[in-house]
Specification:
The complex is a heterodimer of chains A (196) and B (789). Chain A is an alpha/beta fold and 196 residues long. Chain A has six helices and eight strands. In chain B, the strands form two sheets. A six-stranded mixed β-barrel of chain B has the order 2-3-8-5-7-6. Chain B has a six-stranded mixed β-barrel with strand order 12-13-18-15-17-16. By secondary structure, chain B is an alpha+beta fold. Helices cover 55% and strands 19% of the residues of chain B. Classes of the chains: A alpha/beta (196), B alpha+beta (789). At the A-B interface, α2 and α3 of A face α1, α8, α9 and α11 of B.
């Protein structure tokens, strides 16, 4: 689990966008899990993104007209992962893992912030991505819920999931195996906290 | 089970029910407008074509005096002739419930066994027995005839006989009696004998073997028969060859429906505009979700597919509603026209292909309209989509609106500036409404043009009040003097007429027409000259023709000579002038020439000018005059007041313009829907601003006013734009009308009533269209407005 920290405007979100293939580098190369994504065209990039990257946003960005379970099934639908008949089951399994199975058939508007973010994480895991990217995942949550979400990310990392998280939350550092500090678009520190 | 993305599409539609309903309504109106005209056209075409062909119409009608069995056998033996039958057609006067009218009587040996120009029984007896009359159904209503009535028939100076009406029949090959103001009747030759006429049949109807023969080929065959008959000593007067397989009014109906079809397509096009607007707005609201979906791995084509699928679904729903509606309207309007044209619609359906076309258009129209905004939206990069903030801050309106000029209040200024914030959308909305307005103003202009040309026709061109047809022919001078000497008659002028047919260069005959004989210095008619001159007293062989005759026969030229067959003899006349008069081919010559050509010095028709007065006073004067003339031994067979004819003409012509006005209501409705959607989108996009306004103390009234004035401004702009747009529209409408009906003067500039009427329509439409969005704006709570993302 890698945590990227830095002040506003230091380039954290841009870095995340570059890894996700959302932003394009003006120069240089980006290799994610062995794939040189800077050389992919838009069509290949979106296919790669769907399979290899799971993104968690600060404002959750669940689609308001789909239920929690349907939000989780959506990436599988786009990337045509697994047999269609198995998707509802997989979505429910992911929601159960994140502790929100009881919310599976509700619309995002009726969920609390913490519940929405859990659904969003389940959605990011839908296609079993190589990398889970999180952009300020706790930025819109109260501190108790934020702690629980960070714990969730750590347990995912412990299960072997690569997690890259951009955050202001110094508390996240405690869970990180690697901490990168950015300032003015440059890496100013790359530490491996002792407990890892 | 539906995949999550299609469930999203479905629920998005459901979530924005109002907007969805608006798009569906817009597409549906377009399809109902265009589809009903298409249905009508296809239906009428099928009914008239198949209905007409089912009567086995004659390929040619040849007028031969004294047709007998020997001649018929000879004609039937011609290798290209399939069948031949003899008939007799006689004009007579008929009195129904005290009113004398013109009757056209058809007689044949056994009409029920006839195989050419089939006549079908519609009620009562068929065929007529000796001494009875069967009436054609298109004459029934206007003449007020019913089975069981006793009517009086008189032929010129012959005996007047009372005959019972025993049945009603339909002859789909005739131009409708109500249109021609003629009572069509079927009788036996014996009945004609009792009218003092010979029972000889005088015309031969033939059909050719080759059902696909061209008009020229049929003309050639007909001419061979004419030569054959003449060689055997018969007199041939006229050969008439109609356009094969086509009803007398087919071309007129076609062009009428084409004109309407043009406007129906325009309505469809306008509703397409509205769909573009709505789908673009829908996508604007979805940009962030598009970004999220792409971040989750959706490709551009998947995103595009979703939104095009959404458009397709809207189209399907609209089609399901609109196609049956269009079919109901199309069938109803088609039946109305078919009935006017005297066709039976029973057993005919609207052809299936029209529904397939409508479904195709209904489904593809929204997809096509959505294509550009969807393509743009789906190509947007993920980053740009995720960072979308809605309204571009750059679009704030033209410079003059930025200065607070002319003491405008600040809320008013806000409305004005708001109207210009989404310029593309505003222009599209404004143009949609303006196009509807242009057609509206154009249709009102056409209405005024029609009234103009009717008053020109009946005021300036036809300068008499009454035409009298006498039972017996008399010398022109004595008849004129007899009428002119009566009290209450201002002027009287006797006219005569003769049938003629143009002989073509190859010796065949063109269709027949009537040459009316006028005194050269007539004061009763003044047809507008197109070229050449009117008749002169010293003319010996001069003919004036109308434009319809020139159109019908391109061989007729001003200054050239034409060879006519009149009363069986060829005559050469010189064309000295061309006038605009009546829709059917016609000629005019001096009364002396007509008398010489027809071999008849006496006349029957007198045109009468009455003192100026009301329609009622003229009707009274007519009754009085008829009484006086009858007493003096001048028996009047029929009398027609011009004012009655004028009313009927005007009513018929205005019906066309009124139908156009109905079409413009549809177009303006589409424009109003566009304005409603633009306004409600503006309210939606500016929820936060409205919240701010409320937070700083704006009252309900001010918010209502800000929204409604913005809509009114767009409405007023379309009012202004529609006026210059209406000018080409007026030209198009007047030309199209001139081609199908009667020539009308083109009014380029709309009159005050049209401009004022359009202003009222646009103000009402703007206020109505913005009422609901404005009310919605007042419902926005301050807190929620500020929280809106």
């Amino acid at each position: 689990m890698t945590v990227v920290i830095g002040q506003s405007g230091s380039g954290k979100s841009t870095l995340l966008g570059l890894i996700a293939g959302i932003d394009r580098p003006t120069r240089g190369e980006i290799v994610v899990g062995g794939t040189p994504i800077h050389s992919l065209d838009e069509r290949r990039l979106s296919a790669w993104r769907g399979r290899s990257v799971g993104i968690v946003f600060q404002f959750f960005q669940l689609l308001p007209t789909l239920t929690a379970a349907e939000n989780v099934m959506l990436p599988m639908d786009f990337c045509d992962t697994g047999p269609a008949a198995g998707r509802p089951e997989r979505a429910r399994a992911l929601l159960a893992k994140l502790g929100v199975l009881d919310q599976a058939d509700k619309l995002p508007g009726t969920l609390s912030g913490g519940q929405q973010q859990r659904v969003a994480i389940a959605r990011a895991l839908a296609n079993d991505p190589t990398v889970l990217l999180a952009d300020e995942p706790t930025g819109n949550l109260d501190s108790r819920t934020a702690g629980a979400i960070i714990d969730l990310f750590r347990s995912l990392a412990e299960e072997g999931q690569t997690v890259v998280m951009v955050t202001h939350d110094r508390g996240a550092l405690r869970s990180a195996s690697r901490a990168i500090t950015l300032a003015d678009g440059r890496v100013v520190a790359d530490e491996r906290p002792a407990h890892a | 089970m539906l995949s999550p993305r299609w469930r999203k599409v479905g629920r998005d539609l459901w979530l924005h029910q109002g907007r969805t309903a608006l798009v569906v309504l817009a597409i549906a109106i377009g399809i109902v407008g265009a589809g009903s005209i298409l249905d009508t056209w296809a239906f009428i075409r099928r009914v008239t074509r198949e209905g007409y062909l089912a009567t086995n119409p004659p390929s040619a009608t040849i007028r031969i005096s004294g047709v007998d069995q020997a001649l018929l056998e000879r004609i039937r033996a011609h290798p290209e002739i399939a069948a031949a039958e003899a008939r007799r057609t006689v004009t007579a006067a008929i009195r129904v419930q005290g009113t004398w009218r013109t009757a056209l009587l058809f007689a044949g040996e056994d009409l029920a066994a006839s195989r050419i120009g089939l006549i079908s029984a519609e009620g009562g007896e068929w065929p007529p027995r000796d001494g009875t009359l069967v009436v054609e159904r298109s004459s029934v209503e206007f003449a007020g005839i019913a089975v069981g009535d006793a009517v009086t028939i008189q032929r010129n100076d012959g005996p007047a006989i009372a005959v019972p009406v025993v049945g009603i029949a339909r002859d789909a090959g005739l131009a409708p009696g109500w249109m021609e103001h003629v009572v069509y009747g079927f009788v036996t030759p014996a009945t004609l004998k009792s009218l003092g006429l010979s029972a000889d049949l005088d015309r031969v109807l033939v059909t050719v073997r080759d059902r696909d023969a061209s008009r020229e080929a049929v003309r050639r065959v007909a001419f061979e028969i004419k030569a054959q008959a003449e060689a055997a000593g018969y007199r041939v007067d006229d050969v008439e060859v109609p356009e094969p397989g086509s009803h007398v009014h087919a071309a007129q109906i076609d062009s009428l429906l084409y004109t309407k079809g043009g406007f129906a397509l325009l309505t469809l096009f306008l509703s397409g505009f509205l769909v573009v607007n709505l789908i673009a707005a829908m996508l604007t609201g979805q940009v962030r979700e598009i970004g999220v979906m792409k971040a989750l791995g959706a490709s551009s084509s998947q995103v595009a597919g979703m939104y095009l699928g959404l458009a397709l679904m809207l189209g399907l729903v609209a089609s399901v509603v609109a196609i049956p509606t269009a079919a109901i309207i199309g069938r109803w309007y088609g039946q109305f026209i078919a009935d006017l044209l005297n066709f039976d619609t029973a057993g005919f359906a609207i052809p299936r292909w029209t529904h397939v076309v409508q479904l195709g258009v209904g489904v593809l129209l929204p997809v096509a309209a959505a294509a550009v905004p969807v393509w743009r939206g789906s190509r947007m990069s993920v980053a740009a989509a995720l960072h979308d903030v809605g309204i571009m801050p750059s679009a704030v309106g033209p410079g003059w609106l930025m200065r607070r000029a002319g003491g405008l209040s600040r809320p008013l200024l806000l409305s004005l500036r708001n109207a210009f914030r989404r310029r593309g959308r505003m222009v599209l909305t404004m143009l949609t409404l303006a196009t509807g307005g242009a057609v509206f103003v154009g249709a009102l202009n056409l209405r005024a043009s029609i009234r103009d040309s009717v008053s020109i026709l009946y005021g300036d061109v036809l300068r008499y009040d009454l035409s009298l047809r006498f039972a017996e022919p008399r010398a022109a001078d004595s008849l004129e003097a007899a009428v002119a000497s009566r009290s209450g008659v201002v002027r009287a002028e006797a006219w005569n007429g003769v049938r003629a047919a143009i002989t073509q260069a190859d010796g065949t005959l063109g269709n027949g027409f009537v040459i009316t004989g006028h005194p050269p210095a007539t004061s009763m008619v003044a047809y507008p000259l197109v070229a050449g001159r009117w008749l002169r007293a010293d003319d010996h062989d001069a003919l004036v023709v109308n434009t319809a005759l020139m159109d019908d026969d391109p061989g007729v030229t001003l200054g050239g000579t034409v060879t006519l067959l009149i009363a069986g003899r060829p005559v050469r006349l010189t064309v000295v002038g061309v006038v605009r008069a009546m829709p059917q081919p016609a000629g005019f010559a001096t009364r002396e020439l007509v008398a010489r050509l027809g071999g008849e010095q006496r006349v029957r028709t007198v045109a009468v000018a009455l003192p100026a007065g009301s329609a009622a006073s003229k009707a009274a004067a007519t009754r009085h005059l008829r009484g006086e003339l009858d007493e003096a031994g001048f028996s009047v067979a029929s009398a027609q007041l011009l004012s009655e004819a004028r009313l009927a003409t005007e009513d018929h012509l205005l019906m066309v313009a009124d139908f156009l006005l109905v079409m413009t209501v549809l177009m303006i409705a589409v424009g109003g829907l566009g304005l409603a959607s633009t306004t409600s989108l503006a309210v939606l996009e500016r929820t936060r601003e409205i919240g701010v306004l409320r937070a700083i103390g704006a009252r309900h009234r001010s918010i209502l006013a800000i929204v409604q004035i913005e809509a009114l401004l767009i409405g007023l702009l379309s009012w202004a734009v529609a006026i210059p747009l209406s000018m080409p529209m007026s030209v198009i409408l007047a030309r199209a009308f001139g081609r199908t009906m009667i020539p009308v003067p083109i009014r380029l500039f709309p009159g005050v009533p049209a401009i004022g009427g359009w202003l009222v329509v646009v103000v009402v439409a703007s206020l109505a269209a913005s009422a609901w969005p404005a009310w919605r704006a007042t419902r926005v709570p301050t807190a929620a407005a500020l929280g809106y993302e």
